[in-house]
Amino acid sequence: MARGDTEPVIDYPLSAPAALDAPEEWTELRRTRPVARVRLPSGDEASLLTRYEDVRQVLADPRFRRHLDAPDAARVTANESGGVFSGALAGPMSAETHRQWRRMVGRWFTARRMTALRPELEAAAERLTDAMVDGGAPADLRRELGFPFPVWVICVMLGVPGEDREKFSYWSDTLLSLTRYPQAEIDAAQAEFRAYMSRHIAGVRENPGDDLISALISAAAEADGAMPDEALLSTAQGLLVAGHETTANMIGKMIGMLLADRRRWEALLADRSLVRTAVEEALRMDADAGFGIPRYITEDVRVGQEVIPRGTTVVCSLSAANRDESAFAGADGMDLGRAPNTHLAFGAGAHACLGQALARTELQVVLEVLLRRLPGLELAVPAGELQRVEGLVVGGLRALPVRW
């Protein structure tokens, strides 16, 4: 069945009644309009997918292109010169170079390496918790722990000085801008980041260390090849955008969800073995994962009961898909022991998030440290007063006031 042009168009992104709540429209959209016409911040139209099976199908289908660089692809924002979804950030990387890049980066983010890294992560989380406690309650957990922790990890991964983390935070925000920054500022920030990382990559080629950039250069050399600077820049940008901002925001949202209903925190205090499944459930329950994942379709494709015509830009709402009752029993309830938990928080298919093992480890470490160090942790304001970050592609909380 083809879609009709008389279908009403919804302004996207959708709003929610409270920062930790899901938009009220999701349930009805999944039931009656699983492929819904939406108007993006740019004014262009796209199709929104909210069902679990539809989202998983599209993310795994190579006919749906990741980059919105086709002439008739929808623009996400009006002032976008490409932006995070265009492919411009990664530079002119060939398909074969991209496959090589994924293989090499994937070997870095192994479960074994994450296990080896865990003591360093725990020590960093402890230091940041100490500083937060020394500053006294109430404190903004987002500012004191949520954001500095992942950016410290990224600095270690890339082999750059930790004192540059404020620059990295700013560059990350501009790269993920939806409506917050003007195009001139975005372009300037991208140029600054590329210049910074180009100098760093040149230095690493001369004096390699124990970091991801060095490992990629070495692995390429062992394979009788060379890792182009553009591929290394893409790696750095990917880590900065996906590895810093999303994880930082998820720390705040996860702790916010667990403290919003004190019984959840008490359950974890009583049974620490629930930490791993609680992290997965927080990822599934995240009602504000951000814009979603857009794809551009190059030929007519049937999704569910509808045929989506070629030239359509679709937006896959991971958050809506993760609340689909057909995929998760009691989908709107938080089950800290849910297993299995086949959520789509890290995407699906060939382009699923390469750093998901790191993100999971970071979230588990932060939760374990806070449970151990601050068992009396609680929200310092009612959950309904928490506010969302606005104007970025990723979703998060402006602040997470806590006391202990």
Automatic annotation (TrEMBL):
<keyword id="KW-0503">Monooxygenase</keyword>
<dbReference type="Pfam" id="PF00067">
    <property type="entry name" value="p450"/>
</dbReference>
<dbReference type="InterPro" id="IPR017972">
    <property type="entry name" value="Cyt_P450_CS"/>
</dbReference>
<dbReference type="InterPro" id="IPR036396">
    <property type="entry name" value="Cyt_P450_sf"/>
</dbReference>
<keyword id="KW-0560">Oxidoreductase</keyword>
<protein>
    <submittedName>
        <fullName>Cytochrome P450</fullName>
    </submittedName>
</protein>
<dbReference type="InterPro" id="IPR002397">
    <property type="entry name" value="Cyt_P450_B"/>
</dbReference>
<keyword id="KW-0349">Heme</keyword>
<keyword id="KW-0408">Iron</keyword>
<comment type="similarity">
    <text>Belongs to the cytochrome P450 family.</text>
</comment>
<keyword id="KW-0479">Metal-binding</keyword>
<dbReference type="InterPro" id="IPR001128">
    <property type="entry name" value="Cyt_P450"/>
</dbReference>
